[in-house]
Specification:
Elements lengths: L15 H11 L7 E5 L14 E5 L10 E2 L1
Length: about 70
């Protein structure tokens, strides 16, 4: 996939705010639908939405997994 469709490995190590801005700049159809979550809560997502991007961060608000649609 491309930077337009994801996943977005360049976000690893970024702050959540910087990552969200990066994704919203390039990805189509996800504006205002980028969800930042603690990595410990990722099992709570039980549906798939192609227009949603999931960004998982640690306690320091640093992206620790490659963001992807979901």
């Amino acid at each position: 996939m491309s930077q337009y469709e994801g996943p977005w490995p360049k976000c690893l190590g970024m702050s959540s705010e910087r990552c969200v801005s990066y994704i919203e700049e390039y990805a189509s159809g996800v504006k205002d639908n980028v969800v930042v979550m603690g990595v410990e809560t990722k099992d709570e997502i039980d549906d798939f939405d192609k227009n949603r991007v999931l960004v998982f961060v640690d306690d320091g608000d640093v992206v620790v997994e490659i963001p992807h649609r979901g």
